[in-house]
Amino acid sequence: MVARLLTTAQSKQAMGLKVAAVGPNYRDRRQNNPPPFIKRVNLRIQKQPCTHEEAVVEVDYLISSGCLIPMQTLDVVGGMREELFIDYVDIEWGLRAKHMGYASYGDCKALMWHDLGEHPIRFLGKQYPNHSALRHYYHFRNAIWMYRQPWIPIGWKLADAWRLLLKYGFYSFFAKPRLKHWRMMTKGIRHGLLGYTGRLG
Fold it and tell me: Where are the alpha helices (DSSP H) in the chain?
């Protein structure tokens, strides 16, 4: 996986492209998930398909797990924001790098086994990622925090906010214990609006 990512990064750099990061096509053994490559298209955030095994897909961001980042990119873009602690850290960094002219790429052939979150929720024949109530707090808090940053494109804010609203409704009903998840998501929204960061005390 690492050798493949390195080859892809070097190939893109040889083409004169500014590489933010290159990430693998991770698979979760508990669900038949599609390639995890995300890009905003108009006002929708869409998964980008692997059209063939050798495909390399340009994305808005990559999950930090298994991600290869050139050192010279870190020198320019900077590191990930520790104060966000756990959620939206990689999203914020990927969008920041893109804002500075760097592109991220998902490599369809570089494979990684990676369990994302807790046991998935089954709904209407599909499986959806699930997290603890505490993780949902950070997810919602940091999403709202990021929407308040002036350099984030308005189209991205609107597209992601719609997705966040759907998650709020879905996890309020289907993540157990429901009341705890609802409270933590709501608290996260409130703290995001207030600009809180860091670990929840």
Answer: 2-14, 71-77, 89-99, 133-147, 154-174, 178-194
DSSP conformation class of 65 = T
Residue ranges per structural domain of the chain: 2-113, 118-194
Dist. CA 200–CA 134, nearest whole Å: 9
Sign of torsion, CA 69 150 138 174? Answer: negative
The pLDDT score that the predictor gives to residue 123 is 84
CA distance 160 to 97: 18
| Phi/psi at 112 (5° precision) | -145, 130
How is 90-133 classified by DSSP, letter by letter? HHHHHHHHHHTT-EEEEEEEEEEE---SEEEEEETTEEEEE--H
User: Global pTM?
Assistant: 0.92
- Identify which of 141, 131, 140, 116 has the alpha carbon closest to the alpha carbon of residue 198: 141
pLDDT above 70 (res 34): no
At residue 27, the pLDDT reads 82
In degrees and rounded to multiples of 5, residue 67 shows phi and psi of: -85, 140
∠ CA 155-59-146, rounded to 5°: 45
In degrees and rounded to multiples of 5, residue 49 shows phi and psi of -75, 155
